[in-house]
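Changelog-adjacent note: as of this version, every example in the card shows the full chain rather than a window. The one below runs 524 residues end to end.
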Amino acid sequence: MQVMSYAPFGAEGILIRIETDIRRGIPGVDITGLAQGAVREAKERVRAAFRNSGLSFPADRILINLAPAGVRKEGAALDLPIAVSVMAAAGIIDLPQNIMVLGELELSGSLRPVRGVMAAIAAGLKAGINGFIVPEENAREAAILAEGKFFAAANLNETVHALFVMAGSGNLPENTPAETIIGELGESGSQSSFAGDFSEIRGQAKYKRALEIAAAGAHNLLVFGPPGTGKTMLARRIPSIMPPLDIEEALEVTRLHSLAAGINPSASETLITQPPFRCPHHSASAEGILGGGRFVRPGEITLAHWGILFLDEAPEFRSSVLQSLREPLEDRRITIARAEGPVRLPADFQLILAANSCPCGRFGAGNLEGATDCFCTPDEMRRYWRKIGAALLDRIELRIPVLTPEIDDLGKGPEEESRLIAVRTARAAGIQKTRFRGSNIRRNSGMNPEQIDQFCVLNDSARNTLVRTAEIFSLSGRAYHAILKTARTIADLEESENLKTVHIEEAVECRRFGDDPYDILSAL
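Full-length structure tokens:
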């Protein structure tokens, strides 16, 4: 007898067919099909769960095969489908056709939640499966895609009951939802989930403006300056001004997070409707940032899909990790090579880097006279800045130096609230959504050269300004296009159809610094 299940792998995962054969022989359980770690141990958990649930485990030779046999399987989510397959082979239950089962068994027979339930249901629906049994704690996640087609079981006995009901009636028992799974998309993602409001930060008007442009057009950003100037504090507040995800984007982001680590069943909102904000520590490994591992899992760049990857103290990250971000920033995905074949993970993210101007952090602090009062030699500063590298910097459209706020700034009146900035960024994002309808582009930062020619038309004055800038700063072709993309976003924030000289000038001002740590002196 066979039952369908699912194993997370890469961005899609694999459907697993579990087959069981019971024959005469010395009692024992053999599992074939490249079962690894927890899957091999499932036979002992299943045996104990049978006994503690009042069921009789077959005293025969049992062979369990996990197909496709050529793919490695890991994790405890196959416990429950293995148990169901053994029951069907032993004649304890009649196994309905076209059903998927997921769940980890405790020795008592209770079910524990597993990761990847939403991804499993998406794959199952695509394959024509119309019934799903999942652990009770995964119910809210399952209801996002399979409401009316799933049953959430608390233990093995409830699973058996559900299968008897389905065998008799053709339908799984009804779940009684305790709350609405998916609310109104526009009402979700409350400000309380963010790390604060823009109005709490006094001064740093240029930095705030750059974050607004970045949020509206999905542009990458580098901010650098001495410690204590608000680099991290403001960057952590960018979620409060980000345009919300639409329903298709929310489903995709939630599926990826489910696949990577599962959805917290106690979270107030199961569907992720706000762009993700990921902030890994600088000690993170390349596999942690990019994805991979023995069993390929999404990394931070995939978990930041359609959101933000914030690298605080960027030069403290390993140089190899920083440089490996270059291809995903261009391709909007990452391909991980494995002997079994390449695994492709989505990675359409915004990169925000925060850095000090030098290793000791004192360079650029205070006024111009004290700006160079730091302990770093020129060689140390070059090595520090070189870790970011020109190739990665060239892919960052916005580079903003920040200085210690003036006392006058700290005494000013109330600053603009995040909700007011969010209105502008959402409006600009809506303009871009209309502009790129029918294509795979979401924001201005993703425009290709053909779209730049189509949507970034310049008058003579604006073109002359851009040409002069390209000559003065020896801009690369990528930098030239980046200025046009940024100017297009600035125009969208003003709801202007045409690009003007003032838009080009602001875009240039947002990019002209950052190639050299000594640029901080120009901002003093």
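Structural remarks: The chain has two domains: 2-169, 191-523.
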